[in-house]
Every structure is written in C-alpha cells, then in structure tokens.
Amino acid sequence: MKENGTDRSATQLVRLGRDTRASFDFVNPPLVRGSTVLHGDVADMRERVRRRNEGEDGEGDTPVAYGIYGTPTHLAFYKALTALEGGHRSWAFPSGLTACTMAILAYVQHGDHVLIPDSVYWPTRRFARDTLPRYGVEASFYDPRVGEQGRGAVEALFRPNTRLLFLESPGSLTFEMQDVPLMADVARARGAVSVIDNTWATPLYFQPLAHGVDVSVHAATKYIGGHSDLIMGTVTCNERAWPRMRETVHHYGLTTSPDDCWLALRGLRSMGARLAQHRATAESMIAWLKRQPEVERILYPADPDDAGHALWKRDMSGASGLFGVALKQGIAEARFHAFVDGMRLFGRGYSWGGFESLLIPALPERAVVPLAHSGRVFRIGAGLEDASDLIADLEAGFARLRAAG
Ligand SMILES: *Cc1c(COP(=O)(O)O)cnc(C)c1O
C-alpha cells in the first residue's frame, strides 16, 4: 500500500534486509555470533574506528570494528526496520522497556523537563516518575487527547526547559489516539525531541517519522517477534536524532544478541499476514461484543464508534488486534473475576502480539487516565485461533458474568 509516497507493504516485509550474496545464496542471512572482528592491517583498523567515530558504520555495507557495534545479523534486521519506518538508523535493545527508557535518557540532562502522556505504558510512566528525578529531570504527565483542544493547548504544555515530548498512540491500555503530527510539530518548534512508542500500530501501519516525530520505538516483543518467544525493543531515528542515540548506545554499551535479531527479522517476514488475521479476528469479536448489553464501549481506534477513529483514519493505514472493552457499571467483582478466570482459550497474561489470544483486566490503579469510564475494563489481544472458537469462549464468559450471586 502507498503511504506518504513510500511503499510499505507485506511485499516489503518479505524482501527487506536480504542480501543473498552475504547469505551464501540462502534466503535468510546467517546467524553470526561474534565479539572479535579481524582487521586486515593497521590502516584497516584505523579506518573502521574512524567510521565508527564519525557514525558511518551501522548499515551493513561497511564492516564494523567490534561485535558490540552489530554483527551482519543485527545489521540485516536494522536495515529492514529502518526502511519500514522511513528512518535513518535503527538499534535494538534487550527489551521494549529499555528502548523506551533509553530513548528518553539519550536526549535529556540535569535540569530538563519531559512530557509524558498519561496513557503511557505503565513501566515507562514509573521510570519517568521515579527514576528521572534522580538525574534531575522532571517529568510531567499530560492528557493524550490535548491535541483536540488545538495547537495553543499543546504549546501550553511546554516550558522553556522542555527537552523531550513522549507520545504513545493509541495508549496500549486505554487506547486514546494522539494528534501525532500536531504534537511533533509543536515539539520541533520548541526545540524538543519527540519520541513515540509505536508498538500498537507496528512499522507497517504507521510511520511516525514521516509525521514529524524524531524517534520511533517498538516493543519488538509484540507483533514483530509475534510468537511470545522474544523480548526485544527497537528505536529508529531520523538523521537529526541519531547522533545522540548512537552516542548513548555506544557509551552505555547497549547491545542485543544476534539470535534475538535473527528471530525479530524472521518475525517481520510474516507480520503482514499475521496482522491482517489479528485484526479480522479482533473485529469479529468486537461485532459480537457490541451486541452484549453489559458492554458500554469498545476501545479500538479502527472502530468507527471510537473517539479516536478520525485520527486513526487520517494517520494510520491499518490496525493491529489489541483492543479494550469497557463494561457498564454495577458488575460485581466476583462475577468479573469469574468471567476472566474461566476463560479456556484466552490466556491471562501480560504482553501481546503473539499467536495466542490473551485477556486481562485493566487494573484501575494503572489506568491513570480516567478511561472516562467507571465500569470495569478488560483488554483482549486477538490471537490466531478461529474467531468462532474465541467467541464461544466469550459467550461462556458472559454467561458467568450474568450468573446470579
Ligand atoms: C510491552 C510494551 C512495552 C515493553 O516491552 P517489553 O519488551 O515487554 O519490555 C513497551 N511499550 C508498549 C506499548 C508495550 O506494549
């Protein structure tokens, strides 16, 4: 499909990052494990170190000086991700959370102020609230929907020392869409770096950098990995944001195993097909859920009734399979727990984006943004099972919800 004049499609997912010459004519790149890289001579050593110092390494075409700067397996994955995101360079981290926290740390220093959406992934919030102050960085939390009130309201969030604007759209528990282009534009005008957690939309359905954001973060743990067997985070930077990120990952010595990059690249290959199925299954469940009298509202920006639907339609080219369900008030806790606990096909587990369906209650103490709703909320990650089986499981669950006592 065409987005912003660039072709980001399942076809691209299949082809990116492949270099059959470097792969000895095999389809996939080799899994290269390595620390030491051998240099031809002193001049070669000097040249590789110069390239590293000047930021010219890291795209797979030029050999690196040492394993920490990325094996060919890392670089094949980075290259594919960078092309999908329309960025300058990418890097992988040991977890999605590290990618979020390092994407903040890379750009701030003592005395700075950062803006974090109230809807942000909870551990990112905890980091901003409890850890940043130890380094003299103050975080304030803003309403993710502030963009709806216009540019002036967004500008009013910024202080003279605001160095970074963090975005997450939609929020992965409460699903508010943000006006990303507006927010990123204000950040840029104020001299602040903008960083977005783009995990829900995946690099296939939203390209934040084309909308003015500087750094796009993913929990590759989710849809990129796709099989609940990988924990990894990524950042993709534009040219402006890359030098500080590169310096940060090199200075902290942040790297991931080539095995994990190999799994992530393998995950990308089938991500288009998986996402189409995740969404179709989510929409079948949503159609059924909307007919249940206990359901107050579905939290899913691809749904025409969702408050963020217009923004989703304007900015994103698709949707993944994670959504929330807000129930009407007055459902007793014991009934709600019986509903969740009795699920047979839906696992009760954190994370999402794997092949298995998950259902968790949204813990009210973590939903900092008042969901504009006081009833109980649960979140479903649609897996790859048959939708009819999942709906049968939900049907039995709603029967438990309705049972007397
Ligand atoms: C899961 C998740 C993360 C963190 O990823 P981990 O690999 O589990 O650390 C960050 N942001 C969002 C939106 C997530 O869903």
Helix segment count? 13
Percent helix: 25-40%
Structural class: alpha/beta
The CATH topology of the largest domain: Aspartate Aminotransferase, domain 2
CATH class of the largest domain: Alpha Beta
Total strands: the figure is 13
What's the domain count?
2
DSSP strand content? 15-25%
> What is the alpha-carbon Rg in Å?
22 Å
Dominant shape = globular
End-to-end Cα distance: 52 Å
Short description:
This protein is α/β, with parallel strands linked by helices and 405 residues long. The chain has helices spanning 10-15, 42-53, 72-85, 96-105, 122-131, 151-155, 180-189, 202-205, 242-252, 258-289, 309-315, 333-341, 387-402, and strands at 2-3, 6-7, 89-93, 113-117, 138-142, 162-168, 193-197, 215-219, 233-237, 295-299, 322-327, 358-361, 377-381. The chain is globular and about 80 Å long.
